[in-house]
Design goal:
Length: about 280
């Protein structure tokens, strides 16, 4: 007997999602391919004549000029260490708070604290610009990197607490009970048990917080006035004003701003997927 033929409707149902994903991938990569090819072309005429084609001569001088002459190196490292340090600080505070509201035996207080955290997510960050500016001015840390580190870390705490608390609730209570029997205190339980087990969720939260800090523009634009303190998004605006007629160097600067994000996804892709799916199934 011949094998039954696959019905066209079944074939379409299985292939349609893949076709949609391929179309979405093309739409997402379309502008980046243009920027990538433009960054190694000679001049504006070559970009306009063949925007999505490979250049006749690959020119890496655009990257050198953008990195040194336009101070992209200064802005790049400012954004890198501010985004990383603020993300780590927010994760540390959020992990301790998530541990307190999910694993410690103060249910009524924990519920109230968790509700206050949820309310914090409802407040738009832009509406807090003037109060934060006033507070930082009274502390005397305006036009310093601390003026960004504190708001970045504080703004990320509500979201981080919600993600980490959802993961910690899925951890079996038997692990905690065994650790307490072995003599661990609350601090030891947090540092030696909860943090290692929560690594997938922590990595995911770190990526999201870092990207938010890396791309943030409004606070960095208003709170920093010295050129050597500026972050990459603010520096790229000045770069555009200076090199608005040199699209090749502008494209090279954009590639520098995208590179850390791509590297982070390539290196931590597995952990990101684990963190997204963590807590969905109780073990």
């Amino acid at each position: 007997m011949s094998a039954p033929k696959r019905r066209p409707s079944v074939y379409f149902t299985r292939t349609a999602p893949h076709l949609l994903l391929m179309a979405y991938l093309i739409v997402v990569l379309y502008p980046f391919v243009f920027v990538l090819f433009s960054s190694v072309k000679t001049n504006n005429q070559e970009i306009a004549g063949n925007p999505f084609g490979l250049p006749d001569l690959i020119v890496f001088d655009n990257y050198v000029n953008a990195w040194v002459n336009a101070k992209i190196n200064t802005y790049f490292f400012n954004s890198l260490y501010i985004g990383t340090l603020a993300a780590c600080l927010s994760i540390l505070l959020a992990a301790m708070l998530a541990f307190a509201v999910t694993r410690m035996r103060y249910r009524r207080i924990s519920a109230i604290v968790f509700q206050l955290v949820l309310i914090g997510m409802l407040i738009p960050n832009n509406s807090l610009l003037l109060p934060i500016y006033s507070m930082l001015g009274k502390l005397g840390i305006l036009n310093t990197h601390m003026a960004l580190l504190l708001p970045y870390a504080a703004n990320a705490i509500p979201f981080s607490v919600i993600i980490l608390a959802a993961f910690m609730r899925s951890i079996p209570g038997e692990i905690e009970e065994a650790a307490v029997i072995d003599g661990l205190s609350s601090a030891g339980l947090f540092g030696k048990i909860m943090i290692p087990v929560t690594i997938p969720a922590i990595v995911t939260v770190f990526i999201i917080n870092f990207l938010g800090n890396w791309n943030e523009f409004l606070l960095a634009n208003y709170f920093l006035s010295s050129d050597h303190l500026k972050t990459l998004p603010v520096g790229m605006v000045g770069f555009r004003d200076i090199y608005n007629t040199n699209y090749a160097q502008m494209a090279a600067g954009i590639v520098f701003s995208v590179l850390p994000v791509l590297m982070m996804y390539l290196l931590l892709q597995k952990k990101i997927i684990e963190g997204v799916t963590a807590g969905s199934v109780k073990g």
